């Protein structure tokens, strides 16, 4: 049975999620978006109305909800939003693009996998994870809640990614490396050693940015 779907956020990620759910018409019926930016109220996001702020979520008690927020500069924002809304897990939609390969992985509530994402073996992915197109997650990886993977980010085997970490576009993480909670990995970075929680690393090989301790 098709379920109504509310998008939280009306920016670029919302448009990406809409493109995915429209390929799943037997699963999702996108009824609107909610965003606290008053300038967006009454506008359309790719044909879907922005119905108002987050306080309107109570108007749609039967709708599933997906958090469409991903920002490298505010890596904790999505989980903060989820915590603020305080909805049960069954209200959060898990959206998997039909061109994604999950290999039987267990996906947490609210997780979004876009086109071309590949998970190579059965493993567990946390809640409210966002994986943009062509992300690669391989054997024995551990992906915590709230992680964001930009397009073409890839993990070697046995990588641990902590809560709300952000891996930039085209970044690569060597097998067995740990990415700490809230860490940011710059686009195109090649990560060969552990990244401490909260730090920003970039480059080839990746190193902490000026002002961060190694």
TrEMBL record:
It holds the Pfam family Hexapep. Keywords: Acyltransferase, Repeat, Transferase. The record marks 140 as: Increases basicity of active site His. InterPro entries: AcTrfase_PglD-like (IPR020019), Hexapep (IPR001451), Hexapep_transf_CS (IPR018357), Trans_hexapeptide_repeat (IPR050179), Trimer_LpxA-like_sf (IPR011004). GO terms for molecular function: acyltransferase activity. The active site is at 139 (proton acceptor). PROSITE patterns: HEXAPEP_TRANSFERASES (PS00101). It comes from the Bacteria. Coiled coil: none annotated. Gene3D superfamilies: 3.40.50.20, Hexapeptide repeat proteins (2.160.10.10). Substrate binds at residues 35-36. NCBIfam families: NeuD_NnaD. This is Sugar O-acyltransferase, sialic acid O-acetyltransferase NeuD family. It comes from Lentzea fradiae. The lineage of its organism: Bacteria, Bacillati, Actinomycetota, Actinomycetes, Pseudonocardiales.
